[in-house]
Amino acid sequence: MECPSPSPLDYFAALVRDDDSLSLTEAAGAIALAEHPALDLAALQTELDELAARLRRRLPADAGALQRVRALHQFFYRDLGFGGNVNDLRDADNSHLHAVLQRRRGLPIALAVLYLELAGQLGLQADGVSFPGHFLIKLHLPLGEAVIDPVDGRSLTRAELEERLEPYLRHDLRLGLETGMGLSELLADYLQPASGREILARMLRNLARLHREDGDLLRLLQIQQRQVVLEPEDWSLRRDRGQTLAALGQTEAAIADLTLYLQHADGPADGPRVAAQLAALREAGPPRWH
């Protein structure tokens, strides 16, 4: 008796169940299964392994870290031609690793995931950095750390990082700056390494925002299902999914999500509004078909 194959959502859930065994590249690649259920993730990993092998053959066995970084940048950005997709930022495939690998174009965070995979296979120490507005990479080198832009591999100066950060600072931090606290003192907090789970969460947020803005509720729901699986105790994600389910006429599931949100969220500002929506759903009952 053959066991049925797991659904794309179940497969993603299995990949992200435990932080210790979470494979960023595989889980990030699996996000695309929501739209490309026949995608061969093993082929994606095989292609990345082959690229890493090609790169290793270019290097002597005793290559130092800086030599490996230079070779990686030559290979990734110049030979393979990876870069940002400036012509169509609203294409969901900018977040799908298999498509980014094929087209050599994508969002910074998707480029970073591929870069991190190759860097790791070269023995380099590198982390993703969930910087406001633009995902970055931090390289750990013998002489210090370098923060690079995954779109072109350029190393960013402290002044450039501070300039990028300033527009995203909250009002209270701006007040702190007025009292003498410098941006450089705040910058370190925004350059902390992102965990695999945090990177996946940002990738999913990008896709959710895209589908929400396009009004594509079915695709949005697919992403929200994965967000809830990835961050089950972020109750705002239950609220968001519940509202999408309500808009799609899936009343019972919407009621369940919104109820959980109100039960577990700690005094949310939108609590009264969500409670009113929940009461209206319960009163209306399941949709009637004519």
Describe this protein with a few key phrases.
290 residues; 3-stranded antiparallel sheet
Portion in strands:
5-15%
Major sheet: size, sense and barrel closure? 3 strands, antiparallel
Oligomeric category: single chain
Determine the fraction of residues in helical runs and give it as a percent range: 55-70%
Protein structure class? mainly alpha
Low-confidence stretches: none
Strand ordering within the main sheet = 3-4-5
Number of helices: 14
Rounded radius of gyration (Å)? 22 Å
Task: Please state the overall shape, judged from the principal axes of the Cα atoms.
Answer: globular
Overall mean pLDDT stands at 92
Strand elements, count: 5
List SSEs in N-to-C order.
Answer: HHHHEHEHEEEHHHHHHHH
Task: Give a brief rundown of this model.
By secondary structure, this protein is mainly alpha-helical.
Structural summary, described in words:
The chain is mainly alpha-helical. It contains 14 helices and five strands. The strands form two sheets. A three-stranded antiparallel sheet has the order 3-4-5, with helices on one face. The protein has a two-stranded parallel sheet with strand order 1-2. A hairpin with a 2-residue loop joins strand 4 (136-141) and strand 5. Helix 3 crosses helix 6 (108-121). It is globular and about 70 Å long. The protein starts with 7 loop residues before the first helix and ends in a 6-residue tail after the last helix.
